[in-house]
Write a structure and sequence with these properties.
The chain is mainly β. It has no helices and eleven strands. Strands 2, 4, 5, 6, 9, 10 and 11 form a seven-stranded mixed sheet that branches. The radius of gyration is 13 Å and the shape is globular. The termini are far apart.
């Protein structure tokens, strides 16, 4: 059983930065891909980016490209989401998820989920 825990959320002014962390209890092939999703009130869950922990390959959604980056620690137990130049529309609950396949198009394919961390961007 893989357990995920997000941290690092908070309130920040537009243009600021935050770094979210997703720490996993296990590291197996079935959880090799860690993805970040976000969900704002009244909106569908949106994929932000992913990290293949085996290969180090990452990808981010067009909506955050150039502002958000994804990285992992050497132990491959924590995946980070560095968010720069934050905008009001980045306000959402951010979740990390893990599974064997990497995709940010369909959150339903992910088996393991964290509880989420709130990011609020104000003007």
């Amino acid at each position: 059983q893989v357990q995920l825990a997000e941290s690092g959320g908070g309130s920040v002014q537009a243009g600021g930065s935050l770094k979210l962390s997703c720490t996993s209890s296990g590291y197996t092939f079935s959880s090799r891909c860690v993805a970040w999703f976000r969900q704002a009130p009244g909106k569908e869950r949106e994929g932000v980016g992913f990290m293949n922990r085996f290969t180090g390959i990452t990808g981010v959604a067009d909506s955050v490209k150039g502002r958000f980056t994804i990285a992992q620690d050497n132990a491959r137990s924590t995946v980070y989401l560095q968010m720069n130049s934050l905008k009001l529309e980045d306000t959402a609950m951010y979740y990390c998820a893990a599974d064997s396949g990497c995709s940010v198009r369909d959150p339903s394919v992910y088996k393991y989920w964290g509880q989420g961390t709130q990011v609020t961007v104000s003007s």
